[in-house]
Amino acid sequence: LIRTPLRTSLLQLAKSGTVRDAVEKAPVTRGVVKRFVPGSSTDDAVRATAELQSTGRMVTLDFLGEDTLDLAQAQATRDAYLTVLRRLSDAGATAGGRAEVSLKLTALGQLLPGDGRKIALEHAREVCEAAAAADTTVTLDMEDHTTTDATLEALREIRVDFPWVGAVLQAYLHRTEADCRDLAHAGSRVRLCKGAYNEPASVAFQGADVDRSYVRCLKVLMAGEGYPMVASHDPRLIEIAGALAAKHGRDPHSFEYQMLFGIRPEEQQRLADRGDQMRVYVPYGDDWYGYFMRRLAERPANVGFFLRGVATR
Ligand code: FDA
């Protein structure tokens, strides 16, 4: 996670409507996007889940979308989750949490003027009810730092009725080690990632300090009584997570590794094959632009791959 001008520019472009139109219309885009997003329909999500589960990997599904200011769109996002949970449950894919869902509160209406927070919370509750009926879990994604307090507050409220709901914490934020301490209690599920947004130095570590923070946060979570979810593709952090789990006498079912769809699939398989729990985050839907730009920003090689595709057409 290196702070380069390219990364910063791509993350700024992730918020630009004009560039969004151009990228979405570029003929090469579809092919490259497919590497990170298996498809747009519920059928695509169900198929990708079945394929991953057939190789011993678990899944968390993300119906793509964020920052909506349209109530109908927020309701459609809730409905997409209800549909996919029903389909997966009917297919026997959710039992015991083998396939769960990840929610972005801003996709469920958190930013709507007036009652946005209340509306998003209500939508999240409806998804949680469907998840409970399907014998699985829900994890709240974490967005940029302006939403962290609201997301953690929503987590507290939702956990009163659905204590198995988990949340993402981002190691790049200065506050996160303290948030890990708050959430390292029994029954708590924390997905620890580095963080994918363009955050200022006033709130976030930069460069190698992000990795150092990740290790400090991991130490807190692995020593605690909760259920750590190690969301990273970084070989060094994966090794440290394994060593900390062993040090604290954790068995392989008391934590899990998580990676994004299409990123380091061989490593995903290696961890699953050696008996560790590996969950793949599977985004699907048409609103892939923001997600895709964050993936490009993470790795300059991905930008080269994309531009080469444009140039050869
Ligand atoms: P880092 O970016 O340093 O990459 C380490 C290595 O992984 C690279 O050297 C490369 O080999 C490989 N790699 C990483 N990204 C790649 C890419 N895009 N393409 C190809 N190879 C790549 N963030 C957030 O802010 N809020 C959230 O809710 C979530 N949720 C989430 C869930 C899950 C399950 C995961 C795995 C990640 C997230 N993230 C996230 C994203 C996260 O914050 C982070 O941006 C990425 O995981 C990349 O960070 P790494 O830890 O992989 O390290």
UniProtKB/TrEMBL annotation:
UniProt-listed SUPFAM superfamilies: FAD-linked oxidoreductase
Q: Which cofactor does it need?
A: FAD
Has keyword Oxidoreductase?
yes
Which pathway or pathways does this protein act in? Amino-acid degradation; L-proline degradation into L-glutamate; L-glutamate from L-proline: step 1/2
- The source's superkingdom equals Bacteria
The cofactor note from the UniProt entry for this protein is:
Binds 1 FAD per subunit.
Q: Which GO terms describe its biological process?
A: L-proline catabolic process to L-glutamate
Annotated membrane-spanning segments are none
Ranges for the Proline dehydrogenase domain? Answer: 47-305
Q: Which GO terms describe its molecular function?
A: nucleotide binding; proline dehydrogenase activity
Reactions mediated catalytically: L-proline + a quinone = (S)-1-pyrroline-5-carboxylate + a quinol + H(+)
A Pfam family (short name) is Pro_dh
Q: What class of enzyme is it?
A: oxidoreductase
- Which amino acids does the record list as binding substrate? K104, R294, R295
Q: Which UniProt keywords apply?
A: FAD, Flavoprotein, Nucleotide-binding, Oxidoreductase, Proline metabolism
Query: Which named protein is this?
Result: proline dehydrogenase
